[in-house]
Amino acid sequence: MVSRAIEDYLEAILNLIEKKGEARIKDIADSLGIRPPSVTEMTQKLSEKDLINHERYGAIILTSKGEKIAKNMKDKHVILVKLLKTIQVPEEFAEKDACIMEHQLNYRTIEQLRKFVKFVENAPVYPKWVKHFSEYCKTGEYPLECKAKQR
Q: Are the beta carbons of 39 and 29 closer than 8 angstroms?
């Protein structure tokens, strides 16, 4: 079991590698909104736990163990952002809230959310309830079709 901070670092490193081709101390610090000395301290801990490989002033490389954790966290994050956006949470809040939720939810809950998001995304016809919910969020009123079913 690793800490939330470690998960955040590993996910940030993975995102940087995917975006820029490498992860460096300054980039990680910028990504997480912290100071480079804090990143240096944490990279030493990550290296000791065999989650990264890092030589002074060099790029940071995820080990297979670190990459597995990072990809798991990123996958959770993506699922949660999609779910939150489906229920009309603005993207900026969805991103921040997903960061909090990805550390707290049980893996079984994440699996059910993954199935739900996949189901909604792959429904043969855009589900009416999503459209109805969107309208309800904008107006505060149930669409006429829903009002008939409430009675």
A: yes
pLDDT tens digit sequence for 71-121: 999 999 999 999 999 899 999 999 999 999 999 999 999 999 999 999 888
User: In whole angstroms, what is the distance from residue 76 CA to residue 88 CA?
Assistant: 19
* Residues 46, 9 contacting (CB under 8 angstroms): yes
Cα distance between residue 63 and residue 77, in whole Å? 21
* Rounded Cα gap, residues 82 and 31, in angstroms: 21
User: Under CATH, what is the fold of the domain 72-139?
Assistant: Diphtheria Toxin Repressor; domain 2 (1.10.60)
Return d(Cα 60, Cα 14) in angstroms, integer: 10
pTM of the model: 0.83
